[in-house]
Amino acid sequence: MKISTLVTAACVAFQGTAAAVVSGKPSTFIRDYDKRDLLQDVVTWDEHSLFIHGKRAMIFSGEVHPWRLPVPSLWLDLFEKIKALGYNTVSFYVDWNLLEGKQGEFRADGVFAYEPFFEAATKAGIWLIARPGPYINAEVAAGGLPGWLQRIKGMIRTNADDYMEATELYVASIGAIIAKAQITNGGPVILYQPENEYSGGIPPAVFPDAPYFQRVIDQVRKAGIVVPLINNDAWSGGHNAPGTGLGEVDIYAHDNYPIGFDCSDPTVWPANGLRTDQYSTRVEISPNTPYTIPEFQGGAFSPWGGWPIDKCAELVNQEAERVLYKNNYAAGISIMNLYMTYGGLNWGNLGHYGGFSTYDYGAAIKADRTITREKYSEAKLQAQFLKASPDYLTAVPTNLSTTLYTDNVNLAVTPVIGSEAPSSFYIVRHNIYNSTETTTYRLNIATSAGKLTVPRLGGKLTLNGRDSKVHVTDYNVGGTTLLYSTAEVFTWKKFDSGKVLILYGGPEELHEASIVSTAKPTIIEGKGVTTKSIDGNVVLQWKTSASRSIVKIGDLSVYILDRNSAYNYWVPDLADGSAVIVKAGYLVRTAATKGNTLQLTGDFNATTPFEVIGAPKSAKKLTINGQPVAIETSKSTGSWHGLVKYQRPFINIPDLERLQWKSTDALPEIQTSYADSAWPSADKKTSTNTYRNLTTPTSLYSSDYGFHYGYLIYRGHFVATGQETTITIYTQGRNAYGTSAWLNGVDLGSNAGDAIVGDTNTTYTLGKLSKGKKYVLTMLMDNMGYDGNWVIGSDSMKNPNGILHYEFAGRKQSDITWKLTGNLGGEDYVDKTRGPLNEGGLFPERQGWHQQKPPTNGWKASKPTTGISKAGVAFYTAELDLHIPKGWDVPLSFTFKKTKSNEKFRAQLYVNGYQFGKYINNIGPQVDFSVPQGILNYQGSNTVALTLWAQQPSGAKLEGLSLTAGTPVLTALENVELVPMPKYAKRAGAY
Ligand SMILES: *[C@@H]1O[C@H](CO)[C@@H](O)[C@H](O)[C@H]1NC(C)=O
Ligand SMILES: *[C@@H]1O[C@H](CO)[C@@H](O)[C@H](O)[C@H]1NC(C)=O
Known about the structure:
It is found in: Secreted. This protein is mostly beta strands. 12% of the residues lie in helices and 30% in strands. It has four domains: 55-390, Alpha-Beta Barrel (TIM Barrel), CATH 3.20.20.80; 394-589, Beta-galactosidase, domain 2 (beta-galactosidase, domain 2), CATH 2.102.20; 668-821, Sandwich (Jelly Rolls), CATH 2.60.120; 842-971, Galactose-binding domain-like (Jelly Rolls). The structure holds 2-acetamido-2-deoxy-beta-D-glucopyranose (2 copies). One 2-acetamido-2-deoxy-beta-D-glucopyranose is lined by residues 371-372, 586, 605-606, 967.
């Protein structure tokens, strides 16, 4: 379609729907600066913001990866918790690696299906930004690229035909699934990001390569994607910006992680973390698109041997949200996605080798879906504010100054000045952004009543440590003008009964607000607010305290809170576009009206007094989670009051050490009697791997045989001459990997790994071997996954794992013949339900014993806390019955007790066949392994399986293993469905 025809049609359409345009006009839909076709008119934009159906929208978004919580019936819970924050959008990556484990076979069903994710988003009223790669990085194994790409010749993420062809099926298939869910088809998807952080390359790759990127775009368009395309430049480097020609996206976007990933001392924010040139840089790079950050720091991840993940929540805490996010508002951001908002879990080998089994990320919502971090509440204050402030979307950032707007040079202020509407936003922070000083100031502002210095009633404002404030001027509260407020706006609403404005401040701060009104103020609740009428304004001044004040001025009620109290307020939308304000506790999810009943849903972690402010006039009754609740109407405010009782249920948490554990040897391969005739032979004399040249007679790269994830086992056969002295083996399995080796059952030693060592050269002393006797060297290795491919031209994803080289002293290399195995079937993986990455190559995994009802007849009764007495691997399984009462959301995790002296062992935890943890006692740091309901049957029996690999001659046992339950939350969450979990069945061809 040519642009001219579409634009004409669109202009007519927009004239027809002018009433739907709230503020501003979508005039720049006519993009004469840009000759690309516009394929739809539902999602448009100008330099300020997106328009959705012609209406300006702030896109406040949180990143969630559905595959990091593989329980589709829990996705609605995440969406509702995000919607309750006041966000309207979720951004998601798709991990190609999980969907095309075998080249040419794309599978996105069961826990890997996207339709339920889209349905849940729609139900919660959340828009989606789709980011399916093909490359995603995302701290996943291989950056999301399937292992078989190690065998292609062409460079990854380049225009090489074999690489592009390898992506075709995936992009066409996932593209079609996403295309159906676009907003143009009534679905939730509003934006699409092809590729990922296309920002760095080295020779021999051409970088940046516009024809390559254009080909990626063409693939996406061919798959039916019509919504605007965004990119995510890793920094504001201008790659693929509109106007650059071939390979340009529609809306330029860049990522930003200002305080980095070092959570070791979470109180340290690095030097120069905060950018002050974001607005000017964006205008230079892409003047006609809204300022978009598709990944802004929402937390951080922790590596093997690193810090407990809560430290990352501390680094990127509520103070970081205040300082860093408000700095984005100072740059006029209108599309902001916080990476991560729910991080989730690196189950079944999907994580990269730089991290362990949780991807909690220290995010606002914890991996166990609880929302007790203060940063969740702070994010809500900000998102609700922007949701209530449409004028922000057209306000324009001006230059930051340390002198013009306050009387204190230690403060930096950026005015974001109203253009199409009068409201302006003065964003204040410490000039040294990580300062922990307490700084007082008076603020100079320009208002419709002239230039003012506030507070006007005397005293000083305070910026307390790592904080930042948005001081508004000429702020529109449903037709009443808030001339200014030094206290921050949480939200405001226009109800049948009048307007409510909620202001909040930090503890003990002095604040002042001025409302344009000649009405006489009445204090209807609290004390401590001074009122004064000045020049047609009612000026309020107060010192923040934990007790609430309400001042009524005409039809406006100003609620004055401290920040901690504001955390308890929620603003659930009603279907007609209005909302109610609810003061409660842990979570308010939704509001609806039916007849004369207001229906609320929410979760409670304590007995909670609640208040409903602004119930619709038609509503006389209230239900919470479907139950009628008694209410009293306040005479002074008209609000409803009531109480939700919480009676902590008795939850019987079984003692894992007292389960009926059964155990069997998991490494029969080290016995001399073991026959590996059914194993694949490592007999490929050449390798197509372009990353590393073969230095062995046959390839021992696991990828050449289709084994990419989980434990690998090699068996090298030779007939001794008696001349052998040592074998030196160079292995690579990546950070924190380990190995153990045996010769005819004799322990040659283990390498128990190191957090940052990914490859090792080990020399094994063989002793005196008998001439003419057959020997087999069995080597077990943990394989932590492949590299990402961030730098184009490095082809680092192709760096293989396995045995990369060996030397056989006194003999020829070719005197050894090798067999190897990983997961049964390799790329022809057996377990289509749990996907291509879930299981590794241990004997019990190949048999499928990690699933329910394994054939334990004849196994001995032994538990993991008894363990084994020599190097080797034991397999344990037990039934775990749970009887968690329905209606309660109880986070459960498996907790390993670390031994005092760093005993060398590692374990894998399987729950109902899904691998939910890799524990490494001598490396850590993870000891708690959250397992979601739905994987765990909360009302019935479960099969827990554990592999315990002792990497020291004395063997190993678990110091302790327990099930840990968090606070039971009385929940509105409906029945959580069990995911498909095939039971053990004898596997054809299992060896
Ligand atoms: C703050 O930033 C400075 C550099 O500007 C740095 O030297 C210092 O370590 C940081 N302090 C804290 C507590 O984050
Ligand atoms: C209940 O939730 C609130 C708000 O998230 C939190 O501050 C508090 O610690 C929680 N209480 C318990 C017992 O978990």
